[in-house]
Description:
The complex is a heterodimer.
Chain A: H1 4-14, H2 27-45, H3 51-72, H4 74-90, E1 93-109, H5 116-127, E2 131-140, E3 146-155, H6 164-171, E4 179-192, H7 193-208, H8 211-224, E5 232-238, E6 244-250
Antiparallel strand pairs in A: 1-3, 1-4, 2-3, 5-6
Helix pairs in contact in A: 7-8
Chain B: H1 7-16, H2 20-39, H3 45-62, H4 73-91, H5 98-102, H6 106-109, H7 119-130, H8 133-144, H9 149-156, H10 160-185
Keywords (chain B): Sigma factor, Transcription, Transcription regulation
GO molecular function (chain B): DNA binding; sigma factor activity
Family (chain B): Belongs to the sigma-70 factor family. ECF subfamily.
Amino acid sequence: MRSEPLIEARLRELHAPRIEPSPAHGEAADAREAEALAAWSQRYANARPDAGQRAASGRGASLLGVLGVFGRHRLAVALAAMLMAIVGACVLPTSYEIPLGISVEIRVAAGELDSAQEIANYVQARSNAAEVDVLMREVVGAGSGPQFVMMIRLWDHELALGEIELELREQFPELEGAEIIETPLEGEIETIWARRLANRAFSLSLREVDVEQARAQLLLELQAQGFEDDEVVVEVRDREDGQREVEVQIERRGFQADGHEHDPPVMDPASLD
Amino acid sequence: MLIVRDPLARRVRQAVAGDRRAFTRLYRELHPLVARFIARRVDSRADAEELVAEVFRRVVEHLGGFDPSRGSVRAWVLRIARNAVIDHYRTRKSPVALEAIADGLRETTGPLDHLIADERTRQIREILAECPEQTRQLLAMRYGDGLRHAEIAELLGLRESAVRKRISRAISELRTRSRALEDEQNPEVSHAL
Lengths: 273, 193
């Protein structure tokens, strides 16, 4: 899967420092730290020479006191250890994949797919996808003749994987000899366990509150992620089958719904705000 | 509403109150950030060492004046580092544009051939070169300096949401254009989505 982290990795590579950053350890590093500490001492340590030590010894004494209490209560110590283990586990990195759409790739012998436009229209209408990308090209592979490849990417659609192939073959007899490959498009979320659990808790809480409260919760969450009020439309509905339906629309300024070739240059700062 | 407290601000407060350990921790937590920021803006190791030391001299000098209500400690220190780099080039009467140096743009347009590992990286670099200056600046700060969105926003005087959106859209555009270039140049490679 070609994914965004790859682009980010290349950006990091391109923006790497031109020289090695000053090391944090070693003789020179120690000397720099000592120099900074000396400068600090001149200004602040003399004002309250024992403040730091007092604070440190105070902390030490209170820590010993707490440990002493815990030492007398084994259960408390065990609980503390368990709590630390849980906290430790929560900051461990984790990742999970989220479904984004599907890709339908159709391969036929070159020049034989005159109905490409009709196929694209059919798939778009059938999938009810929020966004459809269509790529067409001729591929010349080693040891085989030229092939015409049509790739349809469906984002936020209503199709199950494997559902469209049979329909396409029925609707378009010219696809009889074509190779049709459906592939899920997935995104990987990299996070820590704490955030993942928090997201799950957030989803659960959305189901427990009433419709208006759920909507308000979602709006707050979107605001926290940097979206403005006038950029998002949130609707929460309770269906008759007992399921709660949440619809979030985010307006992306400068984005053109029709024709990918004519999208405005989004790198222009004037169109980014 | 979730209120995020800056843990470094507490260390600053303790260091100003005379807590040596707090200052040592503050130094050690900020050093990698400053060292990387400087290393992306100078060509000489000796200059980098001297500038890092200078930044911490200024940090100590102004530590008592740090105001947590005006921003985070990291952004405050980065502003000091940026000014130190500007002063460094000004002293040397360097012909390099001060703003370009301070905002880390030079490396996106400078000679980086030795860093280019493969064709795709070269493509990204070419696409980057065509991007507006502010986009390059945002990407350099995010992926070069490793700054958080909020820190970039603080340094550039923008809203965090605007920084997030611009970077996200820039990445999306880079990905699209990179794919298009790849498809043009290498038609036999099938899509591996």
